[in-house]
Design brief:
alpha/beta; about 280 residues; four-stranded antiparallel β-sheet; eight-stranded mixed β-sheet; Rossmann fold
Length: about 280
């Protein structure tokens, strides 16, 4: 099908796959817009955010590129999870997996990993990298709500790192994350606090001064206070276990856990075991 907008011809390419988005190609230009079928999107999803990250997915594994902070954060995030639950043989799902950085670390620790994202190029990059690394990871282009409907109560561990702050309705996503867990299972969330310090450090400093991440990566209004996240989790039947701050030094490129969650923080939650 062809569409004309302001004398520019747009061509819609239907991939013919129910689990893949259609792609809107702008003729004669390198730009592409991704059109997700309604069945793949939920109220918790922001297509503009997905497209923003999908456009730079091919540089995900460049440790000096836009995703450099994630490469530095990842060993600390992985250790936080591994020290609080048994990963070897565990069924784990990484929600909002991006190019597969955390998913690969969890798989190397012996977990049976499923990883989902709604950015199609990101999922393709993740699959390709895992294949090259010889890792067996079940990557899916799927929403957390759809996976929760399909595999409710199936996972020992759920991880959701640096994703919730990009959603318009994060509370709904937290509910879906909780549904994925078996009784006694653990959810690990990493996100950014909402206060003056986090605005200065994570947005002004990281995006406009040091340019650690692209400008516009975060919207202040979508940042999440720990009290808000804990309340959503309680509403979903989860119990908070531990909170820790994540401190990143842009000069030394070192990351460590702290007792200060005022900017980046990790939260460990658990679904109560059946009596």
């Amino acid at each position: 099908m062809q569409i004309y907008v302001n004398n520019m011809r747009l061509q819609v390419e239907d991939t013919g796959e129910r689990d893949r988005p259609a792609v809107l190609l702008i003729a004669g230009m390198s730009m592409q817009l991704i059109v997700w079928p309604d069945a793949m999107l939920h109220a918790t999803t922001d297509p503009a955010e997905l497209a923003k990250f999908d456009a730079i997915a091919h540089r995900f594994w460049d440790e000096q590129g836009e995703f450099r902070p994630l490469h530095i954060l990842n060993p600390v995030r992985t250790a936080f999870v591994a020290e609080r639950c048994q990963l070897a043989g565990a069924t784990v799902v990484d929600v909002g997996c991006g190019g597969g950085l955390l998913a690969e670390s969890l798989a190397r620790a012996g977990a049976r990993v499923t990883a989902i994202d709604l950015a199609p190029t990101m999922v393709d990059v993740a699959r390709l990298h895992a294949t090259g690394a010889g890792l067996d990871i079940d990557y899916r282009l799927q929403s957390v709500e759809a996976l929760a409907d399909e595999r409710e109560g199936s996972f020992d561990v759920v991880t959701c790192m640096e994703m919730l702050e990009h959603l318009p309705e994060p509370a709904g996503a937290v509910d879906a994350l909780a549904r994925l867990l078996r009784p006694g299972g653990s959810l690990f969330v990493s996100t950014i606090n909402r206060n003056l310090r986090s605005f200065v450090v994570a947005i002004v400093g990281a995006e406009y001064v040091t340019r650690l991440v692209p400008a516009g990566t975060h919207e202040y209004e979508r940042l999440i206070r720990p009290s808000e996240l804990a309340a959503w989790a309680r509403g979903a039947g989860l119990e908070a276990q531990e909170i820790a701050g994540l401190e990143f030094n842009p000069v030394t490129s070192l990351c460590r856990l702290t007792a200060d969650p005022s900017v980046n923080y990790l939260l460990h939650l658990r679904k109560p075991a059946v009596p």
